[in-house]
Amino acid sequence: MKDLRRYLVLKYIQYLVLSSSNAISVLLGLLGSLYTIIILQSAKVSSKSTAVLISSLAKADILVSVSVIPEMVVWTFGVSISPAAFTSALLQNLLTANTHISCLLLSCIAFEAYLITFFPTESRHLRTVKNATLTSRIIWILVTAECALFQMDDLLKGGISAPTCSPCVLLFHFSSTAAAPLRSLSYLLGILLRTGNVYIYYKIFFSMSNR
């Protein structure tokens, strides 16, 4: 459990403290996620809602590894990757999806810690493996849809012609219209999540200190 706590601290620093990611924090995050996935396979770790959320958080770094691999290939072997295979927009959107998934899951973990600290008995029916699994799936579905929408918008901005079939035209038109306000909403939500997490752990810290 101490290793899992250290992993959570690393992730909070990476996504909710640092203004932008850098190579060192990304590498440490990937190594920490790999180690955490291995730990969670151990029989010593009980299957609880927090473990489910942490597992989903660690798996979110798969998106980072997918984004980093093409850059590592170029840097190591000097190989150029065709834009058709891995566009810069796709790589950036995968990183954005990873950030959004991680921030939402970290906020869920913080909220669960708040419930455990202040309402341990009353919230027991909410802090179940089933609810944690459902919450993780909803977050993944929503952020995946967001990533797809951003990708279609970037394709249109890159000069890709929209398909001629009617449903696809409507879909591309919707993505072009909704992308800008969704980006602004995501930025605002990120600020609110950072503020909420700071408040939660502030309350927990002083509650534990008083005890």
UniProtKB/TrEMBL annotation:
Compartments it resides in: Membrane
InterPro entries: GPCR_Rhodpsn, GPCR_Rhodpsn_7TM
Limits of the G-protein coupled receptors family 1 profile domain: 32-211
TM ranges: 12-40, 97-119, 184-202
SUPFAM superfamilies: Family A G protein-coupled receptor-like
Main location: membrane
Keywords per UniProt: G-protein coupled receptor, Glycoprotein, Membrane, Receptor, Transducer, Transmembrane, Transmembrane helix
GO MF terms held by the record: G protein-coupled receptor activity
Membrane topology classification: Multi-pass membrane protein
Entry's Gene Ontology BP terms: phospholipase C-activating G protein-coupled receptor signaling pathway; positive regulation of Rho protein signal transduction
GO CC, alphabetical: plasma membrane
Protein name: LPAR4 protein
Origin species: Psophia crepitans
